[in-house]
Amino acid sequence: MDDPDMELVAAIDPEFAGIDLRQLTGVESAGIQIASGPPELERANAEVVVDFTVAEAALENMRWCASQGIHAVVGTTGLSREDLTDLEDAFKVSAGNCVVAANFAIGAVLMARFAELAAPFMDGVEIIELHHDNKLDAPSGTSLHIAKLIAESRERSSAPAFSQDPTTTTPVEGTRGGEGPGGLRIHSVRLPGLVAHHEVLFGSVGQVLAIRHDAFDRTSFMPGVLLAIRAVADTEGLTVGLGPLLGF
Known about the structure:
By secondary structure, this protein is an alpha/beta fold. Helix content is 32%, strand content 19%. The protein folds into two domains: 14-103 and 219-246, Rossmann fold (3-Layer(aba) Sandwich), CATH 3.40.50; 106-216, Dihydrodipicolinate Reductase, domain 2 (2-Layer Sandwich).
């Protein structure tokens, strides 16, 4: 997605180092050659680094950004709570700031917020997340984030704990999904043809509330990425999720 206020100055990917970015992506890039590591970002005077890699690489890249005082926007999933604490400590003493979000689709962020609001008023909840067959982590970072928001919202309210799972027999292990934050059940689907889809199912007496978001194309993430790039310089330290950038 083109933006006249931004300029791409560098690209990093050790696997494709030395290849012209335009040749690999078809994007007009003023002759940018893909570099093998972060030092190229300093040479190019990058102001904001955007990281969509894997958790181990992202953590290393963000530590480097913090040490160099460069702002960072991270969409890599699979970062643990300990990893986020590590990044929080690193950017607390850095001239750079960092925004980490499990999902940059604005609709997905709104879905999580709606689920948080609904949590005190229903009797039970489960989460289904569906992704493409090349996704390495399960469940998705977005589903874990939603489960955390729901569990915390329920705990803050005067409502009793969600009803317990009555299942006592599971001939096929894992049929009931995994237990996320607050013991919420999360079910992961991986299939060709999918991109990123999340559904939160709340149940109560005589009714079901379904909150679903479907990302049919990765371009759905770009408005959120651009939002984070514009805002990161003014969001001190580490910010987790797009919610704070949207006012909630």
